[in-house]
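HUMAN:
Could you generate one sequence with tokenized structure?
ASSISTANT:
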Amino acid sequence: NMVVGVGRHDNSLEFLIYDHVVVGDQFVNLSRSLGVTLATQTSVDRLRWLPQSAKTWTGPISVAVFVPDQEFDIAQAYISYLRSCFQSVRDNVAFSLLHPIQKPPRSARIETTNWLFPCSDPLSVLTSLTRRVFTREYASWRTGYNYPQNHLRNIARENSMTHYTMSLDVDIIPSPGMAKPLSMFLNGNTCSKCAFVIPTYEIHDKASFPANKPELSRLIKMLRAQPFHSKVFVHNQFATNFSQFTRPQDDSVLHVSHNVTEFEFFYEPFYVSLDTAPRYDERFVGYGFTRNTQVYEMNLSDWQFRVLSPIFTVHWGLQKKKGRPTWRERQNSNNRKKFQHFKKEIFAKYNKDYLKEARRDLENEMKHNKNKTVKGYKRVQNVPRSSARIKS
């Protein structure tokens, strides 16, 4: 049964949070024995991915779910379905919820008395539930809404019971059998400011889930696997240096493959670290500047990023570059405007020289503008002065 209670406000007083509304039967014991939690966040319409993570990750999972309006009711029904059908969800997962104060819970009139939904098809069950709520009007509001993903990430971390957390999105699936080896590795870790990066790959929809790194390597050679976001936005994961991860090395035990040496501003690795890592900044909502600002703060405060092998994570589907919808561009633009203030704050927080950084930014911008061609004009390069004269 779900125990909701009265909830608590977030710092902005815009959301209500319900902690640990359902706790898996083994969540506490697993937290004590393994010492690392998978902390993930999701909207209701993406909860279908959770059974896959619960199957491959045998440790505790703390999930925060966004549940505005009637989606609150759907979440209750679907979480009950998942717990009934999947023992790993029933045993290992603790659920927490968040909704906007302006969109409080409302009944979706779901009749569950004679439920005969199949355990073999979580997607069709979820689709049948959301279809009742996602009217054209509601879907329009929901699509353009500033999804509070950093709030949810923080809630998932806060509701874990371990010193280490592995922060993933719900559709990022851990490789099979990594919980115990990772626990053993972290138990021997002596670095208090290390984030251990877990390489993430996109897998072709029709490929089988790779059981280990050799199977992943085979899919890469067949062009049925590629680094996450490599075709959409290469800077997202580029600093991980996937060629170093795939090089021949002794993978008999989980180990550090290599260090991240070329940090980039837009770097957004999925990683495991001590829960002393900075919180995700909740002023960034919607799309853009959400995960990378937290990683940027970690880098500024002298955290190191070390890539692990042979474990990895998977995202289904090979992504292709496509135009951004207007709502996504608007959210990205709004967050970009907030970034400079955020940047000044963290430079002051860690006693760093912001003026030096500002001068570097200005120099980079001038170099960028110098290489631009003014629209409507062609640049004349390497033309002798005599031949560039205008004939009368």
Observations:
- The first strand starts at residue 8 and ends at 9.
